[in-house]
Fold this protein.
Amino acid sequence: MSDELKPTNGKKLSDSVAQLIKEEIITNRIPPGERLFDEKDFLKTYKVSKGTMREALKSLEVQGLVNIRTGPGGGASVSRVSSEKTNELLWNYFFHRNVSLEDIYALRKIIEPELAASVAGHLDSEDLELLEASVEHCSEDHPPASQREQRIQELDFHHVLADACPNPVLSFFAKFILSLLARLIIRICCKP
């Protein structure tokens, strides 16, 4: 890259650099755990200050895309973004929006039949035992101590299905819906 990077479209320079690093990871298929680059080479290639480069890397670290180690032998390496981190970032989107249980259940009703169909034949004996235990906990023979407990048991049932789903995209979205429900249920049930 011969030209010096400049901020564009109201983006900070560090955001542009972070985007370039993401593209390099994707283009070169850099696997998780692989070191990204030597700091001197990066500064020479992208012609940015150390501060800009470090801000870009910190942004990617917060997103879960890189891991930064300090000290001798340290540096930036590619990370595998966890579903927990991704759920947390997605939850931030909904933080100040008026999302109701009804909104989430409406979406779950759409994807749940596909989820159930996708796990047919993929459930092992341990999965079936977990499903049976969850159903038992929610039955009238064993009434839960609270409405919150019953809702959590219900979510456990659906987590077993999502964990067994062979489609990673469907599994992720099913788990995200469950995490939204869990957050709302806890918030609703913990109100004074």
In short: The two ends are 59 Å apart (CA to CA).
